[in-house]
Amino acid sequence: MESEGRTIFHVDVNSAFLSWSALKRLEEDPDAVDLRTIPSGVGGDVKTRHGIITAKSIPAKKYGVQTGEPVVKALQKCPQLVLVPPDFETYRKYSHALMEILSRYSPLLQQVSIDEAYLDVTERVSEKETSGVVCTSGGERKRAIALARQIRDQVRAELGFTVNVGISCNKLLAKMASDFEKPDRTHTLYPEEVPAKMWPLPIEALHGCGKSTAQKLQLIGINTIGDAAAADRALLQSFLGQSSGAYIWNSANGISKSKVVAEREQAKSVSNERTLSEDIGRENYQADGVPVICMLSQKVAGRLQKSGLVGQTITFQIKSSDFERHSRQMSLQAMTDRAKDIEEAALLLADQLLGGPEGLFAQGVTIRLIGVGVSRLSEKEKTVHQMDLFEWAERNEEEESRRAEAEKAQKAEQAAREKARKAEQAKKARQDKLDAMMGKLNERYGKGTIRKGS
After folding, report:
1. What percentage of residues in the chain have a pLDDT greater than 70?
2. What distance in Å separates the CA atoms of residue 187 and residue 140, rounded to the nearest whole number?
């Protein structure tokens, strides 16, 4: 495992959504409890306590709460868990601020999600010393650690949250390093450190090795990353398939050829994926799968709106428990950036792919990853949108429905007022009759003969 001659950082926000929600809460109320210091989580419907956990605090992790699991299950593990709803507008704000800081350290910045990015800082750490002497390999590594510390300190000071920085010669090892002890840590994982730092870890800790694959490997005695590294590559390929077996063997041995690639000026598609904490089949699809599809649709819509883009082709894809990818796509009649449009199309595609007598569920396939994407993009301000007849009818029907509801409410209020008025008139009429009768009796038999009871 020889060094590739690069210095790669993987920067990962510690409990991103939870940290950013905590900061927003403290901004609004400085006396509020910091969510990062108590068992807490983000996700689901806070009132009904349905949906899934999208982020958790470190104290919640100690109770076994996992990202991606149903809220109901998380509450069973930790009944005192404090839940807050997701706030993607706030998350986008902090993500943008983080990337702006990272871009100051290297032009080779590759953002891979809202809360993590790779940086190629090779040129930065290999600069000549002021004495004119080129840094040795050891000097470059010391410089890299100092640079990582500088990034962490700046993010904490300017933005109020913490990040982990993993350092290595390739993206895979940098990613593995950033997942070591948290929060607010710098870790190195150079090739010569792999046997001591990575091989003793359980196989499921290997980046890209899902729960289902880990269980398969454990059946043949591969329990640690080191076991996979020492295994025969051909055996892994015959057991897991050519591509998956090669990936597990290469990754376990610290081999990765992927380079840090700066983002393109304009993406050809916008998509989000989620690896599930538990495989999804027919039995738990409605409870656990549908909320993930809805959440991913909202995230894709948010990214489109942030970028000022609209798209026309919706894609739904899954990765099965045996690492096979399956997808369906459809083109909408009009460009969109609305979460509702994306969600409806994605759910329809999911039903086509998974449901029915010929769907994947009927074949016994279970899902380990779900993805939703939008392609055929265009800038929103340059797109002239002409409503088709169905969209016009739908919007007209919605408007008519709102007017009808308003008229119905107004009539109900008028009827209630009229009923109350008539009731008051009837009461007054009865009282007048009673007063008249009392007056006649008192006049005939003497004052005080009859009077109102107390």
Report:
1. 88
2. 15
> Considering 116, 127, 204, 278, which one is annotated as catalytic?
116
pLDDT at 52: 82
Q: What gap in Å lies between CA 15 and CA 54, rounded to an integer?
A: 10
Paired tokens of 294: 């809805």
Structure tokens at 142: 């010391």
Measured distance CA(392)–CA(390) in Å, rounded: 5
Tokens representing residue 277 in the block:
């904490």
Q: Output the six-digit token pair for 253.
A: 């041995």
Under a CB-based contact definition with an 8 Å cutoff, are residues 109 and 119 in contact?
Answer: yes
H or E, element range at 317: strand 309-320
pLDDT of residue 49: 61
Q: List strands edge to edge, sheet with 8-13.
A: 109-113, 116-120, 8-13, 163-168, 186-188
Answer whether 149's CB lies under 8 Å from 138's CB: no
| Length reported for the chain | 454
Strand partners, 288: none
H or E element at residue 343: helix 339-354
The answer to whether 96 and 88 are in contact (CB under 8 A) is: no
Q: pTM of the full predicted structure?
A: 0.60
Residue boundaries of the structural domains of the chain: 9-163, 269-382
pLDDT digits (tens, 9 = 90+) for 137-165: 578 899 999 999 999 999 999 999 999 99
354 in Cβ contact with 317 (< 8 Å): no
Please state, as a whole number, how many other Cβ atoms lie within 10 Å of the Cβ of residue 24: 17
Tokens of 302: 């948010």
What are the pLDDT digits (tens) for 345-399? 999 999 999 998 889 999 989 998 999 999 998 887 766 554 445 555 555 565 6
In 232-280, DSSP assigns E strands to 269-280
Tokens standing for 95? 């993500």
Q: How far apart are CA 92 and CA 265, in angstroms?
A: 19
Angle of helix 88-102 versus helix 137-159 axis, rounded to 10 = 140
238: tokens are 């015959």
- Residues 260, 7: contact at Cβ < 8 Å? no
CA 152 from chain center: how many Å? 23
- What kind of fold does domain 269-382 have according to CATH? Dna Ligase; domain 1 (3.30.1490)
Residue 219, φ and ψ in degrees, nearest 5: -65, -25
Residue range 9-163 forms a domain whose CATH class is: alpha beta
237-253: pLDDT as tens digits: 998 888 889 999 999 99
Can 158 be counted among the known catalytic residues? no
